[in-house]
Design a protein that fits this description.
120 residues; mainly alpha; 3 helices
Length: 120
């Protein structure tokens, strides 16, 4: 038995601890990114569904208002426009949420693309 064995053992222990800490840090980063990352396809589907659903609900309500109030086609037109405005608002809200999530997970000094507005 040489005197190098304890040094070798302490080096192996230190190396194993470093590897364990690196794996734990990678696991924490992966969990953090999984919590906030959603695929681009999922966001595209969300944008489309929110927009179409808003226009559909507005038009549907307008149709029923026309049917019961006898205001054909004005209820459909007015409520359809409200549905269109609600759909645009939903898409803008979802975009801002996507941008906030991208900035949350972006590492370091690199920032996510902004929406074109300038800070005062």
């Amino acid at each position: 038995m040489s005197s190098e064995q304890p040094d070798d053992l302490s080096e192996r222990i230190a190396k194993a601890l470093e590897e364990r800490e690196a794996k734990a840090a990678a696991k924490r980063r992966k969990q953090a990114s999984d919590d906030v990352s959603i695929s681009a396809g999922a966001y595209a589907l969300r944008f489309g569904i929110e927009f179409v659903a808003s226009v559909f609900v507005g038009g549907f309500l307008g149709f029923w208002i026309d049917k019961f109030a006898g205001t054909h086609p004005w209820g459909l037109l007015v409520m359809g426009m409200f549905g269109l405005a609600a759909g645009i608002r939903a898409v803008i809200r979802a975009y801002h949420e996507l941008n906030a999530r991208a900035q949350k997970i972006s590492p370091g000094p690199d920032k996510a693309p902004d929406d074109g507005t300038k800070d005062a």
